[in-house]
Amino acid sequence: MGSSSFEKFGDEWIVFEVKIKLRQFLIRFKSIANFYRLLSQGAYRLGGVSNRTFFKTAFSNGFYRYSIERENINFIFVLKTTSLDRIGDRILQFKVRTRKLINSAVISYPIEELCITERILLKGLYPGGYRIILEKKVNDLILK
Fold this sequence. Notes:
This protein has 144 residues and is of the alpha+beta class.
């Protein structure tokens, strides 16, 4: 990782951006908490594996934030995979599981490609930043 990269964030960190039409989101989920609960803890199954089991086994730590821009609600998830083995499968499963909840655009990329604004918010220096998810200790996740 280059000098502009995050300290202690390695290849196992993946960024997912999810863009959903606001009207559809409000009709389907009614709240941010309900969307996240269904995505990460729901009983929806893909290949016989529930979302809850997938999230517990695929990711060990993470953060998310959302913003509303015009007619869309945008989520950014920064998730640490439990292993680099079959990382492509985990990325694909996250995308499919999200689309299964609501048809939406989902893109993924390495954490090094996170824009400067998101990096500042991820540091937690400003209100409206990221929230910790997956209930793991993240004390050692210091960002430069």
